[in-house]
TrEMBL record:
InterPro entries: F-box-like_dom_sf, F-box/kelch-repeat_ARATH, F-box_dom, Kelch-typ_b-propeller, Kelch_1, Kelch_FKB95
Disordered: annotated segments: 1-32, 386-414
Lineage, top ranks: Eukaryota, Viridiplantae, Streptophyta, Embryophyta, Tracheophyta
Record protein name field: F-box domain-containing protein
Domain of life: Eukaryota
């Protein structure tokens, strides 16, 4: 049924609907109207590739998506993603420009599809430093990028990718020029660049935890005077290839010493990136390998091997300007390789060039061969011919992207994939669901889906909800309703306000109808098991019954459970340790089992041992689980069944039934008084809950009495008192269902006080209507 906002000039009409959503304000609902902490918690679980689209929704979204709180939440819950950062330099730029690669989640594959569609990856500018570094010495540590100046300098700058801000790190011990930098095991190794001076340390290491620099042992005169071509780590050693030496050098990080004459074929190719402990490299120039070749390092055989299946990509690489004269970078991101290079064009009147990108998936064939599969290939950016990308870094990052060019179509949170959308909604309180259900049909469909509540159960995002059952002869079936609490309510209640203001008050709690069963039972034997309510036996149309019906409070649907072994009427039931105990209601027949138990795991019924005649003939008005026993009886007599010993006990010491519990303190309603019992003190008497005199007066003034049904439950750490209130002057023959919300406060001296936060009318019903049940379910 469509829920439409009425035009303001027309009078609102009462509507009858089967939807569980209460009548709300006609103002347009919005996901951003939720509290900031909930929105941040939801957005933190969404892939960053959607942030650019979401940032167009509203200013509040854009503010949250760029806030430090969002990325602190991502870090706290352990949701990080690999992001690629690119730095471009040109003489026309005042400072080097930094970009992040934004991946379009709705991308198309340009190598497969002929028609040009939206780009998969584009370069989005981020905040650049006002420090004119154009260094090749750049490494990634966690979610930060460390940059060392190319000119003789000891300064170190750090880009924090979570907030896109720059800061200064401790300077090196000496000024260096064109040094080589490498990070391994949380430490940054810097080598060379010290102008060959013998009295200056040729290499040093920076500990990112202690934020201190330390000199490395001297490698010798021959190494100090050589030019470093490449550096990388293989098998725990920092391996260096010198341009003027035939031999390779390695620094053993564990033994803190240098080695020479290492296997040059194992180190000739610099390990540029790694996927699942396999090193990858790309040779844009010749050497002992042919030009333009992808290679991987096989540790078992100790040499580099070619990645197969990339001949078509290498042809495109050469065709689109890739060569040894142009910069080429290779990184791994999300388990795939990204190859990025500069492509000069033959006919280029505007003196421009393009930055190309290819995405490559890796497959293992027979364990000894690796094959590449080109999944995407396109232009990332067009830049001046004099510009080159000096650095391209991958970080585990949660940083806020800038908004890329987008289509003119209006973005929507519901445009996210269903699994992400469900994951977000599962973390929102159910009190917001009625508002969200008005947003669109897709929202309403997901909010009523079983997948949503399966997700809530999986992540442990359950909350307590109150369900009420009403019965009247005018009803075809008993009516089940859920207590909906307005999350934007005010704590001021009708007990405090002396004068009624003309301004419209915030909608308070109300009873919202849910799907009712076609089962006409008005049985007292009703228990809660997890997120389900079991309604057991009769009377059904004034007759006994063995039928058991179950209400799934997640989907608000009914199903049949296995029937009892005999028909019962006005039996009582109690749930304990995964089992439902049903007693009485068997019409006093000696040959029928007086009590039976249902195992909710095996879905089977089993008879309990037969009690003596005194127990069978007793009148049962109440039943409860107390100290591993099922205690039942009436005002004068109390009996018990020991669940572990499987035996009956007659005339046990009578205890007031505990209707609910908060922090191991039991609460009950007895003789129109709220009482409490501290289970930790092990005292055998109940005390009155103080501070409720005004509530007692309101209870009596609004029809509360021993002759009317009163229910007490605990929900969300507070007490809820519901009662039927007859009115003295009632021409329409109606009565009201009242609700008082009571907070609990423990005071010095061991006393417990109640603070009434709200007293309101939940529902108007016929005067003959009965308040059958009030149950708390975790959903």
């Amino acid at each position: 049924m469509k829920l439409l906002a009425k035009p303001p000039e027309k009078k609102k009409k009462k509507r009858t609907t089967n939807d569980s959503s209460p009548t709300l304000s006609p103002s347009s609902p919005s996901f951003s109207s939720l509290p900031d902490e909930i929105v941040v918690n939801c957005l933190a679980r969404i892939s960053r590739s959607y942030y650019s689209t979401l940032s167009i929704v509203s200013k509040s979204f854009r503010s949250i998506l760029s806030s430090t709180e969002l990325y602190a939440a991502r870090s706290h819950i352990g949701i990080t993603e690999q992001c690629v950062y690119v730095c471009l330099r040109d003489k026309s730029y005042q400072f080097p420009k930094w970009f992040t690669l934004w991946t379009n989640p709705n991308r198309a594959n340009s190598m497969i599809e002929k028609k040009r569609k939206k780009k998969k990856i584009i370069m989005v500018p981020v905040t650049s430093s006002n420090f004119p570094y154009v260094s090749q010495s750049t490494v990634v540590v966690g979610s930060e990028i460390y940059v060392i100046d190319r000119a003789p300098s000891s300064a170190v700058r750090v880009l924090t990718c979570g907030s896109h801000t720059w800061r200064d790190a401790p300077s090196m011990t000496v000024a260096r020029k064109n040094a080589i930098i490498y990070v391994y095991n949380g430490k940054i190794y810097v080598m060379g660049g010290c102008e060959g001076l013998e009295d200056e340390p040729w290499a040093e290491v920076f500990d990112t935890k202690t934020q201190t620099w330390e000199h490395l042992p001297d490698p010798g005169t021959e190494a100090r005077k050589s030019y470093i071509c490449s550096i990388g780590e293989i098998e725990g050693k920092i391996q260096i290839h010198f341009g003027t030496l035939k031999e390779m050098y390695a620094y053993d990080t564990k033994q803190c010493k240098w080695e020479n004459r290492v296997n040059k074929y194992a180190t000739y190719a610099r390990p540029e990136c790694m996927i699942e402990n396999v090193s990858f490299s790309f040779a844009s120039e010749g050497g002992i390998y042919r030009q333009g070749q992808f290679r991987w390092y096989g540790k078992k055989k100790g040499y580099w091997k070619e990645v197969k299946g990339l001949d078509s990509l290498l042809q495109r690489y050469s065709k689109n300007g890739g060569s040894s004269h142009n910069t080429t970078k290779l990184v791994s991101c999300g388990g795939k390789l990204l190859l990025i290079w500069e492509g000069y064009m033959k006919h280029n009147p505007n003196n421009r060039k393009k930055i190309w990108c290819a995405e490559i998936g890796i497959e293992n064939h027979d364990g000894d061969e690796l094959w590449g599969n080109v999944e995407w290939f396109d232009v990332l950016h067009t830049v001046p011919t004099s510009l080159e990308p000096p650095e391209k870094k991958k970080t585990k990052n949660s940083s806020p992207p800038q908004s890329p060019p987008s289509s003119s179509s209006s973005p929507s949170l519901s445009s996210l994939p269903d699994e992400i959308f469900v994951n977000c909604l599962a973390r929102i309180s159910r009190s917001y669901y009625p508002t969200l259900s008005l947003v669109s049909k897709s929202f309403r469909s997901i909010l009523s889906s079983t997948e949503l509540f399966a997700a809530r159960s999986h992540i442990g995002s359950t909350e307590q909800c109150v369900y009420v059952c009403l019965w009247d002869r005018s009803y075809q079936f008993p009516q089940w309703l859920r207590l909906w609490v307005n999350p934007n309510r005010t704590l001021a209640n009708s007990m405090i306000k002396k004068r009624r203001k003309k301004k419209k008050k915030t909608t308070g709690p109300m009873l919202v109808p849910i799907t009712s069963s076609n089962f006409t039972s008005v049985s007292k034997a009703t228990v809660v098991v997890g997120s389900e309510i079991y309604v057991i036996g009769g009377p059904v149309d004034s007759e006994p019954s063995s039928t058991v019906r179950v209400l799934d409070c997640c989907s608000h649907t009914w199903r049949d459970a296995p029937s009892m072994t005999i028909v019962r009427m006005n039996a009582l039931a109690c749930f304990h340790d995964g089992k439902i105990y049903v007693m009485g209601g068997c019409q006093g027949l000696e040959d029928e089992p007086w009590a039976e138990v249902f195992d909710t795991k095996t879905k089977t019924w089993q008879h309990l041992p037969e009690p003596d005649t005194e127990v069978r003939k007793c009148s049962i008005y109440s039943i409860a689980e107390i100290e591993e026993t099922i205690q039942f009886g009436n005002v004068n007599e109390t009996y018990a069944y020991h669940t572990k010993q499987c035996k009956w006990e007659s005339r046990v010491k009578q205890k007031l039934k505990s209707e609910c519990m908060i922090e191991n303190v039991s609460y009950g309603y007895w003789n129109m008084r709220l009482l409490w019992y501290d289970n930790d003190l092990q005292k055998d008497y109940w005390k009155r809950l103080e501070g409720l005199d005004s509530l007692d007066e309101m209870y009596m003034r609004n029809g509360g009495s021993s002759g009317n049904t009163t229910k007490l439950v605990s929900c969300g750490g507070k007490l809820l008192l519901l009662w039927e209130g007859y009115m003295k002057h009632n021409p329409n023959n109606r009565k009201k269902i009242w609700c008082a919300e009571i907070a609990i406060e423990k005071r010095d001296g061991g006393g417990v006080w109640g603070i009434v936060e709200r007293v309101e009318v939940l529902h108007n019903v016929p005067i003959s209507c009965q308040l059958l049940h009030c149950l708390v379910v975790s959903v």
